[in-house]
Structure to design on (186 residues):
């Protein structure tokens, strides 16, 4: 039983640290995404593994609803189109799977969030670089020291941990906060 408590305490402590040090950045990201949506843009998200699931989860919260009934908001997770993912991976290599989708789908008024616990997922890095070239607002949701994504994104929220599970727990909490802030301000 103590082991379970220790896992929960570890997660709670990391969230307290994030609350004390990154609340301003989280609010800035929510405001940036909301600004893009108000200008007719959309939110595009991507990541690998658990971060792919987080991308889909956040997109679904905006398209559906988070806590209240409201109009649907345009959000796309680049991780859901298996035909594109497998064709791009096969024809161009795994590092290009998000970059090519960004090239096809992103526009200047869009916000693009790349999620990576290491901050070094090459396919996310390349996609954020492409989004920058298009003029979209780029955001990194990362862990560890922020990795390459911290250097590429306009703004990165760096969860100060190297524990993948704890980083992912905080990432989805941050995603929920962003969705709630956007929804409240509509």
């Amino acid at each position: 039983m103590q082991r379970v408590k220790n896992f929960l305490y570890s997660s709670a402590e990391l969230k307290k640290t994030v609350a004390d040090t990154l609340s301003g950045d989280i609010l800035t990201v929510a405001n940036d995404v909301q600004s893009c949506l108000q200008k007719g843009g959309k939110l595009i998200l991507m990541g690998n593994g658990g971060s792919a699931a987080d991308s889909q989860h956040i997109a679904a919260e905006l398209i559906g609803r988070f806590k209240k009934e409201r109009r649907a908001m345009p959000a796309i997770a680049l991780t859901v189109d298996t035909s594109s993912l497998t064709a791009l991976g096969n024809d161009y290599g795994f590092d290009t799977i998000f970059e090519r989708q960004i090239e096809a789908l992103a526009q200047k008024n869009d916000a693009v969030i790349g999620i990576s616990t290491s901050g070094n997922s090459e396919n996310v890095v390349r996609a954020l670089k492409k989004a920058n070239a298009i003029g979209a607002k780029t955001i990194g949701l990362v862990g560890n020291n922020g990795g390459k994504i911290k250097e590429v994104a306009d703004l990165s929220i760096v969860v100060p941990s190297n524990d993948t599970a704890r980083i992912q727990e905080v990432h989805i909490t941050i995603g929920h906060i962003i969705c709630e802030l956007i929804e409240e301000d509509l």
The radius of gyration is 16 Å. Residues 2-185 form a domain with the Rossmann fold fold (CATH 3.40.50.10490).
